[in-house]
Batch of 2 targets.
Target 1
Amino acid sequence: MNVLVVGGAGYIGSHMVKMLLGERQHVITLDNLSGGYRDAVLGGEFVEGSLADRGLLHSLFALRRIDAVMHFASFIQVGESMREPALYYQNNLANSLNLLDAMRSHGCNRLIFSSTAAIFGEPDYVPIDEAHPQLPINPYGVSKWMVERILRDYDSAYGLKSVCLRYFNACGADPEGLLGERHVPETHLIPLVLQAASGRVDAIRIFGDDYPTPDGTCVRDYVHVEDLCSAHWLALNALQKSSRSAAFNLGNGQGYSVRQVIDTAHEVTGRPIEVIVEPRRSGDPARLVADARHAVDRLNWKPQHADLQTIIEHAWQWEQKMVRIAASPA
Ligand code: UFG
């Protein structure tokens, strides 16, 4: 298959490109390098450009037969989306429409779309299954929810088939140590805890320890980036076979608190980790845990790195590489 990976130079997209190459697919990566890295794209064709560039999109589809698209390119910071919603509606919504229009014009009708647990908003119950009400509470979640909604209409009207994959907390790194998380600024818990362990930041700040959870800190469902990629690959194959649109929640069904993450990181790294407790961050639900039985049953998804220890070992391997790069002469 010829697979277009939009955002293939970013964190999850780059792991996906690696997996597709391993599956001997022809990969075309489109990325504007606003948050991604050229050296994270380990093979295939690379096109530098943006989904805002409709002309580029049309020529991309006109010059190749593209069998399917995986769309990872989006802004992902909840807090930023509250301050700058226009960025999120432009990049995550309007640019996605450009992509869908180009696909339609060129008869490409298979899409795997990166969605998020943020479409559910404050949970009514956990674990969260696909039947849970969708009431996003920030522009990031709304932008993803809107694309999911639009995809349903594009299926009915235009026959564009899609699978929406709602990630819970994506984390971990390539087990071979070639790829990992390189967000600037980094806002996610696991990389920040490991930066505190390596000394790249002074401490990890816990955003609130007065939540109604066993140790008072927020509980999340951490899912390894390679397991997310295997779900994409299975989803693409299922879409090829059935031509039926679908949506799946992706997590391990197991919640870990912020303090459990810090304790596990301490065990894995053997390093002291300075902890500072701060007030709650606005918009953080106490518990987010996925019910991913639908993906297990329908896609035959079998996460390989479900335990937190392994996730943190892989992320630590990557963090140590980042430290070595930062220390080496330019
Ligand atoms: N946290 C800290 N200190 C930090 C960073 C995070 O205590 O320095 C806490 C957060 O308050 C939260 C947990 O660690 O309780 C995880 O936070 P992350 O920022 O790593 O991840 P989120 O759960 O906020 O966000 C993730 C994805 C989003 C997605 C959301 C779904 O990164 O893209 O899940 O709700 F929208």
Target 2
Amino acid sequence: MRVLVTGGAGFIGSHSVEALLAEGHEPVVIDDLSTGHARNLTPGVRLIRASILDARALAEAIAGCETVLHLAAIVSVPLSLERPLDCHAVNATGSLQVLEAAHRAGVRRVVQASSAAVYGEVEPPIGEFAPLVPLSPYGLQKRMAEEYGRLYGLHHGLEVISLRYFNVYGPRQDPRSPYSGVLSRFADALARGEPTVIFGDGQQTRDFVFVGDVARANLLALTAPGSFAGEAFNLGAGRAISVLEAHAAIRAAVARESDTARPGGAPAHLPLRHEPARSGDIRHSLARVDAARERLGWQARVPFGEGISRTVHHAIGTPVDPASGTRD
Ligand code: UD2
């Protein structure tokens, strides 16, 4: 199956491209490389370097594709508050462009990345039928994309499945932006022996799901037999972990890993600072994951400890790019 992967050179995208290749599919990637990297892609994968807002490039990329995995987005809650128009353009209008291009190209199914942010502050565990009252432009934009997807099903027979990711982590998540996922920031800083910051008391919890599990869910959603038009599924591990617990797990993994890499070389001093809680942060987030298990046959497999080891291994093993200061 030929699959267009928007944002395919990014964090979740590149893992999804690998999962598609491993099953013998043919991914085609459109990515403007705003946060992704061409080096994330397996050599030989076709990359069209363009934004999803470029209708002509999108039409060219989508031609001949049976399905679309739409991941391209500006993925940040705080950034969507600072730059709502830019984020709206990519996350809402861009998603609409992808749906329109898919409809015109006769695509059968679109699987699109949504987010736990569509729920806002809801009593966990959060099921798919919880009220959708997003607290940020980002959550609203993802919700709009879901709703557009439902309408394309209703009016054009395009099957659109929305996957509501919870907190995805793992190798290749960019750690160097202030908006990066907390675990990539901790792994990168602790691997360098740099200070880490916990916003608030650290007792806030998240449902951390490993990127390999998310890539497998994307693949299942693209290929599952049956009809799922307009449906949305939570993707989480179904376990609440506090930021403090995660910090301790990463610190331990860094000490273990540094010792293996350089015996006796574990950083001696790993300072931890507390700062005031980030405005707009939700306190607790935990997914109910029964729907994905029952309908798609998916559940997270990688235990948190193992996911952390792989993330830390990558952070320690990847040289820092001297030009950008970023890791692979
Ligand atoms: C995640 C997603 C976001 C959206 C949202 C849905 C990421 C990067 N963001 O936002 O796109 O889907 O979930 O609810 O996956 N923190 C620290 N120290 C740091 C960085 C963060 O203590 O250096 C805290 C932060 O204040 C928050 C928690 O860690 O309480 C998680 O922060 P995050 O930015 O990784 O993810 P979140 O849950 O805000």
